[in-house]
Design a protein that fits this description.
Layout (H helix, E strand, L loop, with lengths): L1 E3 L1 E3 L2 E3 L6 E6 L4 E7 L3 H19 L3 H31 L3 H21 L6 E3 L6 E9 L2 E6 L6 H12 L3 E6 L4 H14 L6 E3 L4 H9 L6 E5 L2 H12 L5 E4 L5 E4 L5 H13 L11 E5 H17 L18 H16 L3 E4 L3 E3 L2 E2 L2 E4 L6 H4 L6 E7 L2 H8 L4 E2 L2 E4 L3 H10 L5 E3 L15 E2 L2 E2 L4 H7 L1 E9 L3
Parallel strand pairs: 1-5, 8-9, 8-11, 9-10, 11-12, 13-14, 13-21, 14-19, 18-19, 21-22
Antiparallel strand pairs: 2-3, 4-5, 6-7, 7-25, 12-24, 15-18, 16-17, 20-23
Helix pairs in contact: 1-6, 2-3, 2-5, 3-4, 4-14, 8-9
Length: about 475
Amino acid sequence: MIESGLLLAGVEQAAQSGQTFEVLCPASEQPLATVARGDATDIDAAVAAARSGFEQWSALAPGEREAALLRAADIVECEGEQRYLDLLIDESGSTISKARFEISYTVDLLRTAAGEARRLYAETFPNDNPQRLSMVVREPLGVIAVISPYNAPLALLTKMAGFAVAAGNALVIKPSEETPLIAVAFGKLLVEAGVPAAAVNVITGLGADCGGPLVEHVDIDGIAMTGSTATGQQIGARGMQRMLPMQLELGGKSALLVLGDFEPGKAAAIAAQGLFNHAGQICMANSRVLVERSIYAEFCAELKKYCESMLIGDQRDPATAYGPLINRRSLEKAQAHQQEALAAGATLLTGGEVLAGLVYQPTVLLDTPRHCQAWCEETFAPIMNVVAVDDFEQAVTLANDSDYGLSAGVLTYNYQLGLKACRAIRAGSVHIGMHPFQSNALAPIGGYGMSGLGRSGGHFSTEEFTQLKWISFELGD
């Protein structure tokens, strides 16, 4: 049994209350770790430390911040599998392939963030009075509350924290209670790489104990959060009480459009890869697939064949497509969404059963009614909804039939139609010839509607974690 504490000013320690909670391994549903259960008192200590750390870190030259993040990237590149591979498999339910991707993407994110430390560009602009000079500078926000998810707990934490640190901010990290060990390990990495210990704080605990006290704390200057829309709404409402800058990457119900000129077998493989990665626990997963009627029957046949050939379950086999869902609540939610859709008239093409424990079969529902939760809400499980459409216009209409707008994909060789779809679909990203789940450290990830606020990645992140200040000079006598 692993034992883990809070990380306060770089020192791992017990919660002041002495309380702990258990983290379960998704594969076995057995205890993996006993973890310190922080609360408002620990939040106070972490924010106070971060305020001190911010003064140290923000005073350093950009090149020093860049060097620390590059050292962190080098450590992960050299030792990432030794440090994080088993944690990602055992704590978050990742397959070995997904864990390796997450580690390599973390290296990419850290190096990209390091480069942004030198690129906090601003500008000068003309003043109506020729004897005056006006300029704009960028300044870090201060202490950032970072609330990270369980589905990609290393990479998505790095994406928020890395760019915030590059801009000169200090951190108080509240990870998902499902994956706290990885967050503590990441905090230690930053300190080891040279970020001042006081600037890196990780408070493990339950959302009910820590979420409100953190985002409502008077010394928090900004919020970065990746997670569900429901949680984001609560955090956003609380943050707005103090008008805090917020970057919220929330849920999705991404659509994949399959147009009639695309090969059905190839489209089925792309659709499956875009949904079943990490058991559908990806916010950009294409849980709604809209197929032109001319190839619909062949697409469904190929998709069924692909799903039934997938290797599921053994997380340490590189050929395994995915492993377990994160917890039993997630499994029960998936079952409820499926049952409602079938009762309302959807057809089960394949799957729909629990293989073992929290491992759910690749599941495809045909003609899911539009009022059903499986169509409207983020299931976050390996359940795909496939519907036939008559033409391009109907496909776009159904793609926009959602409160979410995180990502979308269009499978076609007609790039004129593909670009037309990019203009028409209300989503933060649209990918032609690919599924919606794409990663790039430089890209502005975020969405329309209920998919969140702001963008993360590259200079878009550092802009979110800085504020502009207008400075003017009187040059005359």
